[in-house]
Write a structure and sequence with these properties.
Four copies of one chain form a homotetramer. The first copy, chain A, is mainly alpha-helical and 110 residues long. Chain A has helices spanning 2-30, 38-59, 65-84, 89-109. Chains in contact: A-B, A-C, A-D, B-C, B-D, C-D.
Chain lengths: 110, 110, 110, 110
């Protein structure tokens, strides 16, 4: 029961995080000066892809779901820490979604 | 304004359709006899991937978003028609999500 | 026979193009001033994803392979034209791979 | 130098493995009786996606490339062991590509 709740929460967090990363990626590239946003842009792409992969694993009840979520937690946290350093609204929103997803993925992986 | 509403509706329909296809894919393969579900399984995978790609295009305000959604509408409709022929709950649910997504994608592409 | 040759050529072109786009994406973001490379970075990501999707369609003998390759041709051409405008070696290499892939995809789609 | 060689070898192994999994997925679903191939079909999809993700990580020199390859090694090995149990040529070819990729990914992750 707890496992099912964790799974559903993790799924929702991964989808929200994927969306926040996709939007932050696009908006970073729309900023006038995005030289300092390189790592943010890179991590946004990787984190969005990782979350999409985790979603498929959870929905397919993959035997690797826990391991995939453990890796996803690490990538989400790195993306959150990078985004957090930038004042843009999209970076702050992305950081928040990434931290939430990292926590949900850690519970799922436990 | 209408465009923005179409875009948001299309985004939500693509995410729901992606999820329904992922679940139907997994559940088709869990059926005791899934020989007759081959096309359903194939289309579930392709449709889930197509929807995920459309989501990225919409969220990145891609200049190809309309063309991508036009293609997505075609794949969703094919998946819907295939799923509709099978009585399993997951196939019926998937057919519904695919038809909804096909319509939202057609509006987005218009 | 011609169709099989087109299919194999298209597959190889899509994989090479995907790789060139992935590398160009990374190297654009490593340039000291990448403000003028925004469109390049965006299109690199979209084109890499599109090529990966086309690869799956060809290898799965998807009934949508021709339509997917037609769309892929358009995205490859846009990416090629953008990359071509930048002097960096990775942009020039990417432009070349994208033009080759666009042509192979058009033959596949025909 | 050794690291660069490992990276290039891993990249090539991941692309070959992705292709073998895509083909095995399609051909499993084309077999007359694919009830016993369920796990093979599931793992083919997951392994193809995992390899595509690893390719992007290697080509983007991601700080997570080693961790991603470690996970990829595990999924490749599971897919190899499953495919190995089936006599179909595509399953045997896929098993071989998966074992090769698992080994290349382990070296990359080390």
């Amino acid at each position: 029961m707890v496992q099912l709740q964790n799974s559903q929460a993790c799924l929702e967090a991964c989808i929200s995080c994927m969306e926040a990363c996709n939007r932050c990626f696009h908006q970073c590239l729309s900023e006038q000066n995005h030289d300092e946003l390189s790592e943010c842009i890179r991590l946004d792409r990787e984190c969005a892809d990782m979350c999409a992969f985790a979603v498929r694993a959870i929905e397919a009840e993959s035997p690797f779901a826990a391991e995939i979520c453990a890796l996803c937690a690490g990538i989400c946290e790195a993306c959150a820490k990078e985004c957090q350093m930038h004042d843009h609204d999209h970076c702050q929103a992305c950081a928040k979604a990434c931290f939430t997803c990292a926590e949900a993925c850690r519970k799922m992986a436990a």
